[in-house]
C-alpha cells in the first residue's frame, strides 16, 4: 500500500463503515461496537499496521488530554507561578495545558469556558479574581454547570461560589497576621493601597488588614482604591503622597501594586524604608530582585496550581470540595522595626 495507512483503509479491509471502524478503534462516548465486529476491525488494523491518532481517540471518547487554565493576566507573576504549578501537575498526568487570559474582564471567562468546552478540554481551572458582579458570576456558574454535566471537571482558585471544587487561599488570615506583625514593629500611621473596590480578593485583604489595625487600637487608615496591577499601585501611591501627610507605612493589597508604589516613592524623591515603609501580599518571584527586600505575605503559588489540578483529576464528589492553603508573613528590610 502506497502512503500511510488511514482509518478508511482499515474500514475497507474489515468490510465495515468508517464510523464503525472509528468506534472500534477510537472508542465512543455514546455508542459501542460488538465484540466480534471490534475484533475484526482490530485484526484488519494489525494486518495493515495502522497507528491510531491519539487526539482522534480522545475526541471520540468525549474528551481530550488538555486542561484549560483561565487567568486574569499571564504577565502578572502571581498567575504565572500558579500556571507553572498547573503545568507541572498536568504534565505528570500526561496532560497538556491550554492557557487563556481574560485581561481582567469577568465576561471573558464565560467566553473562554465555552470555547474550552467546544474543544472538549478534560478539565478547567479558573484562577482569575472574582468581582462583585452577580450577573457575571451567575453566567459563569451556569456555563460551568453545563460543562460539568457533559463530563468535564472544574476547580476555582478562590471563594467556592461557582458550584465547583475550590482551592481557598487564606487571604484574610494572612492580612490580619501581617497587620499584627507590623503593629508589633511599632507602626501606627498606616495607609492602604487596596486594589479595585469590587475585586473580592483585594477587598478581603484590605478589610482584614484594616480590621486588625482597629483591633490593635490604631486609627482608621487612609485607603485608596485602584487597579490591581503595577500601574494601579504607582498611581495610588502618587495620589497618597500628593495629598499628604506622608504615612509611616503603606500596605499594598498585592505585590505588583507594592512594586508600583515603590517606583512612585522613588520618583517623589523618597527612600524606602527610610522615608516610608512598604509591604505587599503574595511573595511573587520578582521580589527576589527587589531592593530593599519587600515585606509580604507568602502564598505557595505553585502549590496552589498543583492542588487545583489534583482536584480536577479526581472523581467528582457529591458536594464541592475545598482545599485550604495557608499563608505566611515574611518580614524583610522594607519594614524595619520602629519599636
Automatic annotation (TrEMBL):
Keyword rRNA-binding: no
Keyword set includes Nucleus: no
Coiled-coil stretches: none
Positions of the HTH lacI-type domain: 5-61
Domain of life: Bacteria
Gene3D superfamilies named in the record: 3.40.50.2300, lambda repressor-like DNA-binding domains
InterPro entries: HTH_LacI (IPR000843), LacI/GalR-like_sensor (IPR046335), Lambda_DNA-bd_dom_sf (IPR010982), Peripla_BP_I (IPR028082)
Molecular-function GO terms, alphabetical: DNA-binding transcription factor activity; transcription cis-regulatory region binding
SMART domains noted in UniProt: HTH_LACI
Keywords: DNA-binding, Transcription, Transcription regulation
Name the record gives this protein: LacI family transcriptional regulator
Gene name of the record: lacI
Amino acid at each position: 500500500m502506497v502512503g500511510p495507512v488511514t482509518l478508511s483503509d482499515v474500514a475497507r479491509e474489515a468490510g465495515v463503515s468508517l464510523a464503525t471502524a472509528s468506534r472500534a478503534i477510537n472508542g465512543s462516548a455514546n455508542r459501542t461496537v460488538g465484540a466480534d465486529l471490534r475484533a475484526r476491525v482490530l485484526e484488519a488494523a494489525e494486518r495493515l499496521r495502522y497507528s491510531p491518532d491519539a487526539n482522534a481517540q480522545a475526541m471520540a471518547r468525549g474528551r481530550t488530554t488538555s486542561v484549560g487554565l483561565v487567568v486574569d493576566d499571564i504577565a502578572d507573576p502571581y498567575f504565572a507561578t500558579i500556571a507553572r504549578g498547573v503545568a507541572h501537575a498536568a504534565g505528570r498526568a500526561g496532560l497538556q495545558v491550554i492557557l487563556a487570559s481574560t485581561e481582567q474582564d469577568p465576561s471573558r471567562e464565560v467566553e473562554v469556558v465555552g470555547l474550552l468546552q467546544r474543544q472538549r478540554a478534560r478539565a478547567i481551572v479558573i484562577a482569575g479574581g472574582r468581582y462583585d458582579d452577580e450577573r457575571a458570576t451567575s453566567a459563569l456558574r451556569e456555563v460551568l454547570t453545563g460543562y460539568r454535566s457533559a463530563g468535564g471537571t472544574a476547580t476555582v482558585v478562590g471563594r467556592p461560589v461557582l458550584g465547583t471544587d475550590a482551592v481557598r487561599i487564606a487571604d484574610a488570615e494572612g492580612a490580619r497576621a501581617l497587620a499584627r506583625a507590623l503593629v508589633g514593629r511599632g507602626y501606627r500611621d498606616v495607609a492602604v493601597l487596596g486594589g479595585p473596590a469590587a475585586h473580592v480578593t483585594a477587598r478581603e485583604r484590605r478589610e482584614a488588614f484594616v480590621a486588625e489595625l482597629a483591633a490593635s487600637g490604631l486609627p482608621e487608615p487612609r485607603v485608596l482604591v485602584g487597579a490591581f496591577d503595577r500601574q494601579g499601585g504607582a498611581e495610588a501611591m502618587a495620589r497618597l503622597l500628593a495629598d499628604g501627610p506622608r504615612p509611616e507605612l503603606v500596605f499594598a493589597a498585592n505585590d505588583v501594586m507594592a512594586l508600583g508604589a515603590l517606583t512612585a516613592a522613588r520618583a517623589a524623591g523618597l527612600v524606602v524604608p527610610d522615608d516610608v515603609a512598604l509591604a505587599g501580599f503574595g511573595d511573587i518571584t520578582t521580589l527576589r530582585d527587589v531592593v530593599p527586600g519587600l515585606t509580604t505575605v507568602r502564598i505557595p503559588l505553585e502549590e496552589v496550581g498543583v492542588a487545583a489540578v489534583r482536584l480536577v483529576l479526581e472523581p467528582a464528589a457529591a458536594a464541592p470540595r475545598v482545599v485550604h492553603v495557608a499563608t505566611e508573613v515574611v518580614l524583610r528590610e522594607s519594614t524595619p522595626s520602629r519599636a
